[in-house]
Specification:
Helix content is 42%, strand content 17%. The chain has 312 residues and is α/β, with parallel strands linked by helices. It has two domains: 8-114, Winged helix-like DNA-binding domain superfamily/Winged helix DNA-binding domain (Arc Repressor Mutant, subunit A, Orthogonal Bundle); 122-311, Vaccinia Virus protein VP39 (Rossmann fold, 3-Layer(aba) Sandwich). The strands form two sheets. The chain has a seven-stranded mixed sheet with strand order 5-4-3-6-7-9-8, sandwiched between helices. Strands 1-2 form a two-stranded antiparallel ribbon. Helix 10 (166-171) links the parallel strand 3 (156-160) and strand 4 (177-182). The chain is elongated and about 65 Å long.
Amino acid sequence: MTSAPPPPLLQWIEPLNDLARLRILRVLDAHELGVGELASVLQLPQSTVSRHLKRLLDAGWIIRRSVGTAALYRLATSSLDQAAKTLWELAIKALADMSVCDEDDHRAREVIARRRVDTRQFFGDLGSEWTDLRDKLFGESLNVRPLLGLLDPNWIVADLGCGTGQTAAELSRWVKRVEAVDREEAMLEATRIRLEGLGNVGVHRADICNLPFEDNSVDATIMSLVLHHLESPTDALREAGRMTSGPILVLDMMGHDRTSYRDTMGHLHLGFPEDAIQAIAKEAGLHLHGYVPLPPDPSASGPPLFAARLMH
């Protein structure tokens, strides 16, 4: 006689009976990390962390994403059922006042800050394929070509998070100079190929929150599909404001509920409604001078986009 399978609720409850696993889940709810990074955050042996991760993975609490030869883990937000979500809300409340969790938060921020930009995460692996993926998700929603003729031809414009250089190439036809910036060398390789022969484009590998430009050294800045991948959009906008004397144009996704994007593409934010952009801009010392939803492309599969104009 075979025993009946356990109720689905037990699948979720049983792995939560260990404080280390709860701490792991709490950290992975906020960050996507590797085994070694988690071991540093929790100050536990890597073998212990690996054992706990396997238990959580088998139970469906976390997902694993392969990046080259490495594996990154994150809370499986898109596949948890309502019972699991309710349990997790209770667990988070129970952990709220524990000092060890505050220490985990501090160490997690340090691990993220020290993470090398050449870890070849999502964008590093995509490289030149990013243009095709972007077109599939957003189609003609990102076509700003008809508006570029309105730019001052004497301007220097920064393209932060330039990806494969598509926007920088278009901008170069209309302005004096373009400074294209990305943190991923694989992206910049594709950018250099696309921009070969253009004498008015500089290509820079840098973190958007720590840019190699003097104060007010560019006239305008464009940030296209960048903010949702950043730990701190506020820090990025503050740095953009420091180096930009004129407008900052942000193109990104409007607020959406496609939580699977956290797992499949490493998105840290599920888009930005107008009030969120306004709050982030204010914290960065900027003012929102317009938030315009862009007409969606019916053939695109991604969420609707917006364009926002920020000024000092």
